[in-house]
Amino acid sequence: MTEVVFFPGNESVPPTQTVAIIGAGPRGTGVLERLGANLEPLAPGRRLEVHLIDPFPPGPGRVWRHAQSPLLRMNSMAEDVTMFTDDSVTCEGPIRPGPSLSEWATLAQTGRIDGSALCPHVLDEVHSLTGTTFPTRRLQSAYLTWFFEQTVAGLGDNVTVHVHKDTVVRVTGGEDEPQLVWLATTSEPVVADVVVFALGHLDSAADDEQSALARYAEKHGLFYLPPEYSADSDLDGIQPGQDVLMRGFGLAFIDLMVLLTEGRGGKYRPEADGTLTYLPSGEEPRLFVGSRRGVPYHSKTNYRLLAGRPPLPRFFGPDAVAHLVSQHAPVDFRSHVWPLMAKDIAWGHYHELFNGHPDRVLVTWAEFAERFAGLTWDTDGMRALVAETVPDADDRLDLSALDHPLQGLRFETFGELQDHLCALIREDVDRRSTDQHSADLGAFAGLLSAFVNLAPLAAARRLTTISYVRDVGGWWLGFFSFLASGPPGHRLEELLALSRAGIVHFVGAGMRVDTVDGQFAAHGSSSPHTVRATALIEARIPKPTLERTTNDLLRSLYESGDGAPEVLLEPRHGTGQLLVSPTDLRLVNSAGRAHPRRFALGAPTSVVAVAAFSRPKVNSPAFRQNDLVARAVLRTPWPARSTCAAAAEDVSPGHTARGGPGRPR
């Protein structure tokens, strides 16, 4: 029987609350920071004991850990990355500002932050960093490690943090009981009052199609890689000169492209005209890439707005969202939401065009803005206004053309398709490397605003099932990622160099993969050409799916009924995400009841904020959720003395738990 040691029950001993945070990446450490920020305002004098549990380093976690290829980079500029709340964040807790990634690097450059513990390569990068640099993931790892260390150092004497380099396999404990957090490497659980699940992106078992492709590959001696986190992919089975199909043209493809070319010893040589020439090592395969759109994600800009930040949100802000949430009938995304979001995207675009490039328009911003505000999106009146005031069609925003750049195009030969794709990529890189096209960045600002303000509407579940699944989870997130989450421009320069070197070839739009005569065969709608190959890579990360998760903890929640997959009704549809209550992110069980001592947030859950860190000054949904959960944790009542004793009976022999008055830890 476990020995339970209690502190004396007198008023001179501050009470202690124990919290287990499962997942020590940016999301888990963000919650830790918010616990520290809210502790004194909500519970003055209380002692807090936090167990932070993750097999990967605290701060960076799995995705941003130092132990990955130094070739892999972020797709955000250093000045657009922060882990700190600022005055744009609308939350109840205190705002605790701090340096962005670029500001942190400047502090390290000037010696105000000690960078002596950084590895030489990262330290060299720190000293060469500017605000518009796209940093390596190793540099982001250093920033996130520093954020964690600063967070812990600033918690004060009333907070103790225990870091467990371990994996949680299950959590047990009733609604009025302490929670027992069982680890993979020890028989003694962590005993906590409250548990926060901050698991981040997770792997999934193969679906039916992927399983069939894997069996086919095994039978015929082929290589097949299902969707997975690309930095962890084992690519040793890909042979030099092998023809490889790659299905997916987003960031996962870019990572894999880097690892299979420069990662195998290839080099880039700058030319006098500003282009790159790829010098092969001889170890590269030949890559044939395609997707539904058939083009890579748009590259990130490397310049700033000429007219400053546009006044956003304008049409799709908190008031518009509150109005939509209050409607009795379900909300249709295409009819009621998208027109407002699109107007904000266009508002950002034209604000920058009219104010940053007044020589390219025929009226003032004030005149245009007044007329624009009174028009409905995508109507003859709005199109007429733009045609009258913006003479160059290249300056006009066409969201449909941006979404489907290859729609209606079919090339007679494979070579013509390659030439057209190279021209499209060249145009994209050029538009995002000169501020002559800074209206694109204004549209990007509108896109981010729309994304942030859609989050509370989606969380309130006021959208129809079809809207939520097809329009938001399908089209909108794909469109947002295509425009806003692309690679740095130099990656597309490298892609063009690889195309010229014959290493990368483009399959086009509508890519489909079949199995033919012991090989994989790919074809698309852009040309009649079929590509046969002996390897197929699914160049994308797996979608969260509770039913097929490979994570032992989520699997135990699903099988026990302590965690339930989200199911939308009318028509019935399972999203595969872990169901949480939209108001406070408590974990919901299969009976539909929210557990008062368990919270979950992040990628696998039904209330998703895509990024765990944020751009400064955008009122990040992730920061708001972190604050919401931290305050709910601190308000959670403690278990009664009797239930603590009962829980202690269940702990493995030999475990000694110490805690506050009447409570084991």
From TrEMBL:
InterPro entries: FAD/NAD-bd_sf, HpyO/CreE_NAD-binding, L-asp_N-monooxygenase_NS-form. Residues 20-201 form the FAD-dependent urate hydroxylase HpyO/Asp monooxygenase CreE-like FAD/NAD(P)-binding domain. Pfam families: NAD_binding_9. This is NAD(P)/FAD-binding protein YdhS. It comes from Kibdelosporangium banguiense. Residues 644-665 are annotated as: Disordered. PANTHER family: BLR0577 PROTEIN (PTHR40254). It comes from the Bacteria.
